[in-house]
């Protein structure tokens, strides 16, 4: 194991550097960046997902430190991404199976036209100031993530919209009249990107005092000591680590390969859990044909693991 040096020192010791990033900016030539970015990542042993759109870039990558920094340097060499910021953490094992650079309509899909965080957005709140804001009795705290994410961790006292996808969030806001009962709205998400659009949407809906956690939960867990934290549980991440905790240490959750829901040790021990086939969250919704198909997929994954390979699937 090697200790990965970071701009902000972390107690993590890991073999791979993980970089989460996003940047809202007009990029008319975004399609032209796909091929060179994909090639550069592959040449440097970097894996993950990067989304490119007219409105900017979003994604998480992992790999050898030198490789990840080469990709970040390439991005910042582009005029549009010169001020790109990123968050670092570590992983004991490569957390991604492949490298994907995709062209999208939006870098985070909300489904509302003309929402532009470059035009209007909420007020950023640094992690060190977040506790005071969400402890204020005049503040309503909203988690903008989806239900499978909030199931394993949430800020104390936060409202959970229990959405299945981010596309459901605008309708939830329109129907949740209680949001007008207090003057301040504080919003948060994993890394900050969903709140860029969520707070922009709230401002356009007429809410005046709208705030969001700068750098998201990940930055909060990195900077705020556990003894001062108002975070309860773990933070779901979209890679093979499944979750992280304070100090961005890898969590103890397992991912259900059938429904992608994070699982606790108790859920893995449940009779409805079968590795790669079902879990307490999806068991009753699966057909026998589903189970046969999933068992074959899991068998191929196990065989690949014994050969020292990684089964990528389709």
Question: Could you characterize the architecture of this molecule?
Answer:
The chain has three domains: 16-103, Alpha-Beta Plaits; 123-233, Oxidized Rhodanese, domain 1; 253-313, no CATH class. 27% of the residues lie in helices and 22% in strands. It has helices spanning 34-43, 65-76, 127-135, 147-150, 169-175, 193-204, 216-223, 265-268, 288-306, and strands at 16-24, 47-53, 56-63, 85-91, 99-103, 123-125, 139-143, 153-155, 184-188, 209-213, 231-233, 235-236, 243-244, 254-255, 262-263. The chain has a five-stranded mixed β-sheet, covered by helices on one side. Strands 6-10-9-7 form a four-stranded parallel β-sheet. Strands 8-11 form a two-stranded antiparallel sheet. α6 links the parallel β9 and β10 (209-213).
Describe the SSE topology.
Elements: E1 16-24, H1 34-43, E2 47-53, E3 56-63, H2 65-76, E4 85-91, E5 99-103, E6 123-125, H3 127-135, E7 139-143, H4 147-150, E8 153-155, H5 169-175, E9 184-188, H6 193-204, E10 209-213, H7 216-223, E11 231-233, E12 235-236, E13 243-244, E14 254-255, E15 262-263, H8 265-268, H9 288-306
Helix pairs in contact: 1-2
How do the strands line up in the largest sheet?
4-1-3-2-5
What is the string of SSEs from the N terminus onward? Answer: EHEEHEEEHEHEHEHEHEEEEEHH
The total of beta strands comes to 15
In one word, what is the shape? globular
CATH class group of the largest domain: Alpha Beta
CATH topology of the largest domain: Oxidized Rhodanese, domain 1
In the predicted model, the low-confidence regions spanning at least 5 consecutive residues are 1-12
> Helical element count?
9
CATH superfamily of the largest domain: Rhodanese-like domain
Find the structural class using helix and strand composition.
alpha/beta
CATH architecture label name of the largest domain: 3-Layer(aba) Sandwich
State the helicity in percent bands. Answer: 25-40%
How many separate structural domains?
A: 3
Q: Distance between termini?
A: 31 Å
Strand proportion, as a percent range, falls in 15-25%
Give the biggest sheet. 5 strands, mixed
